[in-house]
Amino acid sequence: MSGPRPENAAVLQPRKDKPVRNRHPWIFSGAVRSLPEFENGGILPVLAADGEFLGHAYFNRETSIAGRMLNFDRTPPLEALAANIDAALALRRRFFGAETNACRLVNGEGDGVPGLVADLYGDVLVLQISTLGMDRLKTFVLDHLTKRLAPRSVYEKSHLPTRREEGLPMFDGLLQGEEAGTVEVLENGLRFRVDIVHGQKTGFYLDQREMRAFARRLAAGRRVLNAFAYTGGFSVHAFAGGAASVDSVETSDRATAAARENCALNGFAEKPGRFLTADVFEFVRAEPLDYDFIVLDPPAFAKKKAEVVRACRGYKDIHRIVFQKVPAGSLVLTFSCSYFVDETLFRQVLFQAAREASRNVRILQRHHQAFDHPVSIYHPESDYLKGFLLEVE
Could you give the C-alpha distances from 346 to 138, 339, 340, 386, in angstroms and in order? Predict the structure, then answer.
């Protein structure tokens, strides 16, 4: 079958096509031998150095990741994009029922849709776009998703460092329908109010759904500290699981108020516990930490590779203090969402903290991936969240 001519395609360097042949979606600039005349963000056929057709990708000459694959066959690229979105929606329908109506519908490369995150909160759809190529496809994606979902509102929250390299401004605004505001959703049968406009990420940390349910099963009769509590997701689940008390600590007044509101929304307003606006590092240094279940779910300490050493110092310090102070037999459910701190390094940091605290610490469980945050086996780079359930003897 005849295919695109090299002068009309992106042609890769000799011996640089193996990642694409292995279905890795990223093409680094050093792997590209030649590009035709095209507008940055445009879709091009991709050829190996010997002329073999490899698929389609959108390209940006100005970025280190020059191309991102939309497909690995001869399907027209927009048809492939629509099919991948439909497959992503179908996957979510298999796993979610009436008890949860907030989920990630499209998880970037994990669903074969690079540069796009789409989250659904009840009848409000929130998009996050990280690349110029996907930004140029936004109208197509928006039309396709609204036909499938008929949302009341579509809001975009695109505040991502990658947009600077892509030559895109940060963007936050309503794309379609009613003003989004605050929406009430269900997660595991529990109620939460999500502030679409002012909330972190797309409004809620959907990637921790499975671990919040896990914490609920562990909480019965325990004195719980939810550090870096954000809007109280772990706190609500701990109360629902029968926790004896829950203290929620967060640096933001807005988040602390939301955590209190979410607990009240589920009937836990009179349950024993405190809602504290404080620096978590200062809190754990000052308090006796007389808890037998602590959740540490901080924001990313390392947002770029140059910050890894400082991030590991922070992870070690807070865990050392916790390990030193908690009673014997306490559980610590801890996470890192810093991509540049992988699971091996995070475990090494926990080892150092335990050693400096002179406490015996055991790993009981590892993080459970949420079904709506799939990671392509061909693209391990998108596996950013890791965590451990620890027992401090």
Answer: 36, 11, 10, 8
Q: What contacts 335, CB < 8 A, 6 or more positions away?
A: 208, 211, 296, 297, 298, 367, 385, 386, 387
Residue 151 identity? P
- Mean pLDDT over each residue of the chain, to the nearest integer: 95
Half-sphere exposure of 322 (CA within 13 A, CB side): 31
CB atoms within 10 A of CB 274: 11
Q: What is the pLDDT of residue 53?
A: 97
How does residue 2 score in pLDDT terms, banded at 50, 70 and 90?
low
Sign of the C-alpha dihedral computed for residues 101, 102, 104 and 106 taken in this order: positive
Distance CA 272, CA 243 (A): 9
Active site residues: 337
CA-to-CA separations, 11 to 5, 24, 61, in angstroms, rounded: 10, 16, 13
Q: Which of 110-114, 300-304, 321-325 has the lowest mean pLDDT?
A: 300-304
Residue 53: count of CB within 10 angstroms of its CB: 17
pTM of the model: 0.93
**CA 371 – CA 101 distance, rounded (Å):** 14
- Mind listing the domains of the chain with CATH numbers? 6-71 (2.30.130.10), 77-184 (3.30.750.80), 205-392 (3.40.50.150)
Q: Which amino acid is at 37?
A: E
The amino acid present at 206, given as its one-letter code, is L
Structural tokens at position 383: 């596996």
Kindly state the average pLDDT of the residues 248-267: 96
Instruction: Tokens for 2, please give them.
Output: 């005849």
Average pLDDT over residues 79-100: 95
The packing angle between helices 209-218 and 233-240, to 10°, is 40
Query: Residue 300: its pLDDT value, please?
Result: 82
List the structure tokens of 103: 């989920």
Give the end-to-end CA distance of the chain in Å, rounded to a whole number.
66
Summarised one tens digit per residue, pLDDT across range 304-334 is 788 889 889 999 999 999 999 999 999 999 9
